Amino acid sequence: MLFKELADYYDRLETVSSRLKMVDIMADLLSHVSKAEVAKVVYMTEGILAPPFEAVEFGVAEKMMQEAIAVATGHTKDEVASSYKHTGDMGLTAQAMCADSKLKRMSARKFSVLEVYDSMAEIARTSGPGSKDAKITTLANLIAAASPQESKYVARYPMGQLRLGLGDATIMEALSKAAIGSRELKDKLERAYNICSDLGAVAERLFIGGADAMDNFKVTLFKPIRPALAERLPTAEQIMERMGGECAVEQKYDGFRCQVHKDGNTVKIFSRRLEETTSMFPDIIRAVQAEVKAKRAIFEGEALAFNEATSEFFPFQETIRRKRKHSVEEKAEEMPLHLFAFDLMFLEGKDYLNEPYKERREMLESVLRGSKTILPSTRIITKSPKELEDFFERSIENGLEGVVAKDLKAPYVAGARKFSWIKMKRSYRGELSDTLDLVIVGYFLGRGSRAEFQFGGLLCAAYNKSRDMFETVSKIGTGFSEAQMASFRELLSKSRVDSKPARVDSLIKPDFWVEPEYVVTIRADEITKSPTHTCGRGRQPDGSEAGYALRFPRIVDGARSDKAPEDATTTREIIEMFEQQKRVGVEEA
Ligand code: AMP
After folding, report:
1. pLDDT single digits (tens) 82-109
2. Among all residues, which ones are annotated catalytic?
3. Cβ < 6 Å from ligand 1: which residues?
4. CATH pick for 48-159 out of 2.40.70.10, 1.10.3720.10, 2.60.40.420, 1.10.3260.10
C-alpha cells in the first residue's frame, strides 16, 4: 500500500464523528493491505512501532522535529517554531511548511507504507553520540519527498500525535470485518489479543492463518498476558452466594503487580499495563532464578516490602520509593521486597489458562516450595461467610487493603473483569469504598480567581465496554492544588481537539475537548442518578432520562501512566457500585 493511500484513510478517520463509521473506514483500509503489511499498519494506526512490552521509543523531541521540518522545507527554525506555537499540532505545521516550501521539491516520489514504517523503526533504533543529527536527517529526507498531506502524518506519528481515536476494540472489530465481512470474529480476536498483548501479531496471524489460527493461539514466554481483574462486592454473604457456597479467600496486597516470565536463567517482569519492569526488581529476579523450581514458567504476584521480623507490610507509598530507578540496588538491601504470588498461567510448556484455579494454585505452590522471597499469597478456603469476614478483618489489622475471593473452578480470565475474582475492601464513613479511574475527555477554563491558570476543572468519563465509548460521569472542579492545575493545563493543551472525539458520548460541552488518553483516580462520596451525564443513561420509572454521576468528586492524584483509557472504571462497574450502595456497607474501619 502506498503511504498516500494510508494518509487518505487517516484523513477520513479524522473527520468522522461516529464510531461505526470509524469501524467501516478501518475495515476498508485493512482489506487493502497485504499479509506483509498488516502488523505494521496496525502498529502505525495505534501510534506505536511495536507492542508496549517491547518498549520501542521513537526518541524524537519537539525541537528535533521542528529542525527536520526546517531542513526539509527551507524555512527557518524560528518560522517553524512560531507555526507550531500557533497550531499546537506538529502535523499541521509540517503540512503548512511543506505546502509553502522554499526549496525546489524533489520529483514526486511515491512512498510505500512499509518504507515509512521502516524509516521510523530506524529512527527509533538510532542512539548514542550523533544520533540526534542522524534522526533529523532521516526525518528531513522523508518530509522533503512527501506531499504536504503525507508530511502531516510523518510528523505526527513519531510525536505521538496521531490521535485517530481508534481503540483496540475498534481495530479488532475492523479486522473481523476485513477478514470475514462481519464482526463475528471479534471475540476470538479479543481472546488471542488477551493472551499475547500484541495486536499487530494477532492481525498478522489472522491474515496468514485465517479464523482457525485464532482458535490455536497459545501463551508465549516473554509476551505478557493481559491481566485478570477483580469485580467488587461489599459483603461476605454476597461474595459467598456469588461463588456458589465455597471459595478461596486471599489477602489483597497493595504493591506492584508483577507478571513473571522465566525461561532458564532469563527472567522478565511485566507490569499491570504490560510494560517491562525487569530493571526495577533486581532482587526479585535473583530470587526467581534461585528459588523457583521450574525451568519455564509464567506466574503472577504482587511485590511489596515486608518486614519479616515484625510481620509488617509497608504501605504502597513506602514501596513506591523503590520505583525510582536509581539506587534500586541500595533500596533492595534496605527494604527487601517480597513477591506474593497468586496465580500461575504456564509451566514447562503447558498452558494453564483454562485449568481451574484450584489446580493452578497447586502447581504454583509446588514450584515455590521452600522459597523465601517469593511466597504464595496467604489464603483460606471456606464455605462460611463468617470465616471470610474474620479473614478480611485480620487482613486489615495486618495493614493490608482487603481480600480477593476466588472461584475454585474458574479459569484464568485474561484481560477481563469477571466474578471469578471478587475483591472486598475497607470503606470509610460517607465514602465509596473504592476509588474510580476515569478518563479525561474535556476540560474547563478557570473563572474568577482561577482564570490565570487557564484551567478550572475536568470532564471525566467511564468506559462502556460493550459500546466501546467513553460516557461522561463527572465534572470535577474542586480539590486541585495550584501545581496540579498548571500541570493539567500543560498536559491537556497538547491533546486538545476541535470537536467531540467520535468515541466520546456527552451532553455537556466543555471549553475544550481532549482525545481520551489520560486516566485519573477519583474519590467520591456517592454515586447518584443525574440527567446531565451519559454514563449508563436510560429511561427512569418516571419517564425521564438519566445517567449516573458522582457526588463530591475529588481528584486523588495527577494523570496516571499505568492505565490506558480502556482500563478505566467501566459503566457496568459504576452501575454495580450504585446498586451495592443501596445495600449494607462493609463494616467501617
Ligand atoms: P484493584 O486494583 O483494586 O482493582 O484490585 C485488583 C488488584 O489487586 C490486582 O490488579 C492485583 O494487582 C492486586 N492484588 C493484590 N493481591 C491480590 C491477590 N491475592 N489476588 C489477585 N490480585 C491481587
Report:
1. 999 999 899 999 999 999 988 876 656 7
2. 252
3. 230, 250, 252-253, 257, 272, 302, 342, 377, 404, 423
4. 1.10.3260.10
